[in-house]
Amino acid sequence: MSEQYSRQNYWKRNIRLVTICLSIWFVVSYLFGIILVDQLNAFSIGGYELGFWFAQQGSMYVFVVLIFFYAWRMNKLDREFDVHED
Known about the structure:
Structural class: mainly alpha
Radius of gyration: 18 Å
Largest sheet: 2 strands, antiparallel
Helix content: over 70%
Shape: elongated
Order of helices and strands: HHEEH
Strand order of the largest sheet: 1-2
Number of strands: 2
């Protein structure tokens, strides 16, 4: 029973982490890059309008950061549930 609960808890937390990461990516790429582009264009970064920056580069940068964050957090979670690959 304890092992089954541990597995369920591990996957529950894994799915929660994936959901959070995908939600952040959705907000940055879709909302900031497409839907809210006109409002964000009132601001600029390095001479470029913020909405344009999110559409062209920002979403990719956030995606790369999310990859590293997910790998770091999953390594921590794997060690917590003793399923790491060391």
